[in-house]
Please model this.
Amino acid sequence: MIFLELVLENFGPYLGRQVINLCPKRDDNSRPIILVGGMNGGGKTTMMDAIRLALYGHRAQCSTRGNLSYSDFLTQSVNRNALPIDNTRVELVFEHIENDQPMEYRIVRTWTKKPKDGKDNLGILEGDWLDSALTNTWDEYIENLLPLGISNLFLFDGEQVKELAEVETPPPVVVEAIRSLLGLELADRLAIDLDILVTRKRKSMANQQQLANLEDIEKKLSSQQSDYELAKQELCSIQEQLEQTREKQQQAFDKFVCDGGKIAAQRNQLESQLNYYNTKVEQIREQMRELAAGILPLSLIEPLLTQAQAQAEKESRASQAKLARDILQQRDQRLVDLLTALKLPAKKFDKIKAFLGKENQQIEQEAGEVKDPWLGAEEEMFHSLTNLLTYYQPTQKQLAEEQLAKRKNLEADINATKRQLATAAPPESYQELEDALKQAQTELAQAQAAIVGFVIIPL
Model:
């Protein structure tokens, strides 16, 4: 059996009429191996499904059929862009040797988007002529030519090969195909038929006593079968009751949570937590009061303190310059007298006097920076103010900011805890919710125990 041509028309992703040559030739030599490649969803598996559908019709094990009926599967296979009046067609041409002669057959299956009677129209052409007899007996003919049970050993794509290579145990489809190929299913069927024949033979050869015993056994078996069916029904009832009890328990638990029962059960813990938060906030407030009793309030006038520091520094430099000016003027006069007595050259003497005059001018400028000193800060006060602004004040501000951040976090925790307590159920409602939840849990435990203790021994 050699496939020659596959024709797809409005089938799956193939819109319009598409003819696929399955027996290409080059230089009058046939190429027995054909590789079909494409992206995912490109229609590779659809080609394999088309071959299965053409060969086996409603018995075809196509990849996208699943549990669909044959009519629904045919409707699903129609290209979504096809017109409602367009036909969907699958044709497969193959060659088969009969009586030492090659015979060419064309399988044609057509249907519309809503197939009539849920079936397709089948036609088998031998050459260009319709073979009605072969069309009517096609299922039997193809079963002798390529049985459906072993077709999965021949019709599969590369993805299935990959899956078969990765699994340790072959899937049931492959197992059944191998069993069909080896004829093992025939042996199983013969074994079952043989058991039936043996039972019939024993009945025909048995005497009256044995027949009576056999009838008694059959009655007991029938009774046990009835008991078994009743037990199965009872088990289904218990399982249904268990499911209802489980739903009831879940509803009771949801109501317990939504109505504040869960939070009410944690009321004591939440109240203790709230007291702890309030205690920590009070401790932080006490520490803030201690900081406020120190030098922290001076941060409110920090710009004025900075201005006073700058003024004190200017006045201190001016005072020091005035003291140095008087001392240096006396020293310069002595130096000039000495240089006059030494009778230095006039040129050098003038340079020295110019240098001294320039130095005195700079000192005079520093002494005159503060014309009207108003702060009058002493040196010790100036150093204290500098230490306050550069060390003590930043440290106190940082401590205050840290305490404020802690208090802010604690206040957020306090508000969250209060909101939880506000949603808690009152004591009388909490007791009702708790009793309902415990009752539902008890019923669920009883139903679970009932189904655990229920045992059915299969016949």
In short: DSSP finds 15 helices and eight strands in the chain. The longest helix spans residues 208-258. The first strand starts at residue 2 and ends at 11.
